[in-house]
Amino acid sequence: MHPTRSRAGKAVIPAAGLGTRFLPATKATPKEMLPVVDKPAIQYVVEEAVAAGLDDVLLVTGRNKRALEDHFDRAHELEWMLSSRGDEQRLARVRESSELAAMHYVRQGDPLGLGHAVLCARAHVGDNPFAVLLGDDLIDERDPLLPRMLDVQQQYGGSVVALMEVDPAQIRQYGCAAVKPTGDDDLVEIVDLVEKPDPEQAPSNLAVIGRYVLAPEIFDVLAETGADGRGEIQLTDALRKLALDAETPVHGVLFDGRRYDTGDRGDYLRAVVRLACEREDLGPEFSQWLLDYATQELAPRMPAGN
Question: What number is the average pLDDT over the span 138-164?
Answer without folding.
Answer: 93
